[in-house]
Design goal:
Layout (H helix, E strand, L loop, with lengths): L3 H19 L6 H21 L8 H25 L1
Helix pairs in contact: 1-2, 1-3, 2-3
Protein name: GlsB/YeaQ/YmgE family stress response membrane protein
InterPro entries: Transgly_assoc
Family: Belongs to the UPF0410 family.
């Protein structure tokens, strides 16, 4: 069933905001939401390749979104530094 669209936006925004604070990134509200949601999707996909699945609950998705958003910020900085 999942956490739903509104839940994904809330959890994604929170995960992106926490990630931007951890990574010292200066992002806005929409970027935080995007980072959290995309980060969760990307990391959930990567974890599924190893048969690891985060539960469809708020806390596991917050953790996955947070780690995924941190990875996306790191990747963006790595690619931007080389270009």
């Amino acid at each position: 069933m999942g956490i739903g669209l509104i839940g994904a936006i809330i959890v994604g925004g929170l995960a992106g905001w926490i990630a931007s604070m951890i990574m010292k990134a200066d992002t806005g509200l929409l970027a935080n939401i995007g980072l959290g949601i995309v980060g969760a999707v990307v990391l959930n996909f990567i974890l599924s390749l190893f048969n690891i699945y985060a539960r469809d609950a708020w806390l596991p998705q917050l953790v996955v979104g947070l780690v995924g958003a941190c990875l996306l910020i790191w990747l963006w900085r790595a690619l931007r530094g080389r270009a």
